[in-house]
């Protein structure tokens, strides 16, 4: 279930036939990195081949017609082939016919690519709420109608592009997960001819979860490469903005960062920050020896790497990718040091796992003038989520302390917002009791695995959910099936599992899926051969989640 290859296949078909010139047109809803750079956000597009190709939404049919009118002025009669990125409704066909007054559209095809492929096992619907595009309806338990429709369309596109007709399970405590599952099931039944795939002994599973059942994972500092870049710098459609980095060179003010176009990132996007420095040093040394035949002994730090790249223009030309990663890792290192993330990260992990953080350690960091206000607020949020029921007075005192130490009152309100949306009364599972038990076992390994383990103790709640699923212990009472799954559906072990997180997923969870897929593919697991795919409303970092 490689979601990137599915989109690459569609794009290859669209740009290959007919054998003629193509032009790329984008509407305001379609954001693309570069034409053939995957991941490419194809969240709403229309392809028109005339020899002209445009990628846009159905909203751009009129725009395409304007292109035709320009061609007609030039007296160039052109036939068109329209390609839609999802199921084409009767209304959309009628609209296309209305604007095609010169009857030049000779063929319409449906390509199911109404989502953004991020990694082979990760996709996003790229929906971060705004005033114009809300996510929730009248309450945090209800959908905005347009957001629901776009989510259904996106997941249907994923299923059709992978040729999967799944049974559907959902998190019982989430009305939004149930509503989404019901609507997807209804759409599958409506489009039964499109879902007429070759049957499998055990049907695929679509498991719909709710972000609110694990509010901790997106609030934590991250310590693996891709997740750190997104947390500290932000990754938007495969791009990273470095324009605010001190002394950054003009050509590095915005860089692309996608595994499919970057061999080093492909090899190390899941690497921990500790391992990353060693790998980057080897990468720089390799380019150094190849380009200048010079020994690597002079490179001993990030500063040395930067100096080396700046001093050798020829190497800079040949090693643009090295320059990019030196700049990225250098900036990550600078921010980690500036914001005291090692100190705050250890306390965060303690709060998340119950491995030792207490009120005093949180108070110490809140009063530390070197710790930024955002880090202080996240600590209060994590403390509040953990001790909401048992130490409510301490939560209130921490909020007041944060207000006295740089946190704005408007931001401090987010503590109560997150408790109302994802507090203990809203969560289906006891998020912290299981973590406390696991933490006791992991703490004994610190001496064996080194300091890195201190920052990697937490595992997303998704891990436990999937382990229960693979071992056949995921209870129907907590994760019921949508009607139509069959009497013995709960006893079957699916080979293909698509997980969708209502409210957004994270790169930490994506790493969990990637490592689990590696283990399952190796054949050494109790569920060998099972394949996992993760998707979400968006890909969160702590900032987007707190303001979602």
How would you portray this structure in words?
The structure is a single chain. The chain is of the alpha/beta class. The chain has four domains: 1-111, no CATH class; 114-214 and 460-547, Sec1/Munc18 (SM) protein, domain 2 (Rossmann fold, 3-Layer(aba) Sandwich); 225-338, Syntaxin Binding Protein 1, Chain A, domain 2 (Alpha-Beta Complex), CATH 3.90.830.10; 341-422. It is built from 21 helices and 13 strands. It has helices spanning 3-16, 61-73, 90-99, 145-162, 175-190, 225-232, 263-268, 273-292, 302-311, 313-318, 320-338, 341-353, 359-366, 373-387, 392-403, 409-422, 431-443, 446-449, 461-470, 507-522, 542-546; strands at residues 46-49, 80-84, 105-110, 116-119, 122-124, 167-170, 205-210, 239-241, 254-256, 496-502, 505-506, 531-536, 539-540. The strands form four sheets. It has a six-stranded mixed beta sheet, with helices on both faces. Strands 1-2-3 form a three-stranded mixed beta sheet, with no helix packed on it. The protein has a two-stranded antiparallel sheet with strand order 8-9. Helix 4 (145-162) crosses helix 5 and helix 14 packs parallel to helix 16. The longest helix has 20 residues, at 273-292. The two termini are 29 Å apart. Mean pLDDT is 81; it is low at 31-57, 59-76 and 434-452.
């Amino acid at each position: 279930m490689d979601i990137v290859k599915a989109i690459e296949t569609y794009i290859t078909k669209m740009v290959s036939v007919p054998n003629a010139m193509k032009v790329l047109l984008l509407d305001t809803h379609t954001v693309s990195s570069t034409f053939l750079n995957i991941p490419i956000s194809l969240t709403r597009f229309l392809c028109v081949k005339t020899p002209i190709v445009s990628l846009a939404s159905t909203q751009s049919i009129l725009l395409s017609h304007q292109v035709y009118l320009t061609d007609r002025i030039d007296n160039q009669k052109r036939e068109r082939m329209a390609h839609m990125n999802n199921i084409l409704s009767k209304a959309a066909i009628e609209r296309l016919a209305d604007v095609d007054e010169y009857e030049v559209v000779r063929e319409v095809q449906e390509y199911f690519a109404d989502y953004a492929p991020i990694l082979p096992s990760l996709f996003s619907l790229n929906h971060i709420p705004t005033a114009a595009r809300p996510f929730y309806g009248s309450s945090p338990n209800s959908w905005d109608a347009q957001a629901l429709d776009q989510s259904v369309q996106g997941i249907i596109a994923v299923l059709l592009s992978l040729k999967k007709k799944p049974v559907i399970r959902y998190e019982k405590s989430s009305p939004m997960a149930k509503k989404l599952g019901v609507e997807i099931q209804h759409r599958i039944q409506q489009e039964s001819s499109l879902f007429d795939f070759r049957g499998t002994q055990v049907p695929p599973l679509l498991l719909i979860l709710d972000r609110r059942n694990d509010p901790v994972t997106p609030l934590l500092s991250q310590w693996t490469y891709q997740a750190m870049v997104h947390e500290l710098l932000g990754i938007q459609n495969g791009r990273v903005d470095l324009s605010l980095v001190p002394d950054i060179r003009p050509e590095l003010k915005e860089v692309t960062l996608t595994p499919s176009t970057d061999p080093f990132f492909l090899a190390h996007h899941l690497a921990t920050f500790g391992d990353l420095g060693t790998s980057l040093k080897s990468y720089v040394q390799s380019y150094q020896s190849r380009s200048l035949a010079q020994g690597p002994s002079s490179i001993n730090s990030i500063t040395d790497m930067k100096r080396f790249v700046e001093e050798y223009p020829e190497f800079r030309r040949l090693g643009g990718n090295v320059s990019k990663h030196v700049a990225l890792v250098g900036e990550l290192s600078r921010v980690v040091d500036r914001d005291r993330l090692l100190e705050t990260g250890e306390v965060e992990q303690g709060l998340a796992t119950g491995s030792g953080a207490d009120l005093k350690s949180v108070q110490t960091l809140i009063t530390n003038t070197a710790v930024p206000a955002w880090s202080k607020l996240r600590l209060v949020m994590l403390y509040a989520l953990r001790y909401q029921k048992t130490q409510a007075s301490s939560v209130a005192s921490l909020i007041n302390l944060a207000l006295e130490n740089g946190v704005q009152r408007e931001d401090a309100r987010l503590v109560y917002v997150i408790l109302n949306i994802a507090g203990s009364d809203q969560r289906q599972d006891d998020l912290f009791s299981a973590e406390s038990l696991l933490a006791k076992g992991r703490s004994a390994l610190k001496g064996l695995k080194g300091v890195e383990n201190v920052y990697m103790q937490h595992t997303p709640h998704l891990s436990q959910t999937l382990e229960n699923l693979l071992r056949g212990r995921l209870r129907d009472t907590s994760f019921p099936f949508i009607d139509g799954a069959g009497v013995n559906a709960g006893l079957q072990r699916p080979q293909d599992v698509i997980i969708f997180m209502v409210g957004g997923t994270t790169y930490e969870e994506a790493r969990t899926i990637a490592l689990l897929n590696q283990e399952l593919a190796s054949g050494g697991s109790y569920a060998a051969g099972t394949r996992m795919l993760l998707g979400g409303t968006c890909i969160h970092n702590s900032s987007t989640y707190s303001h979602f």
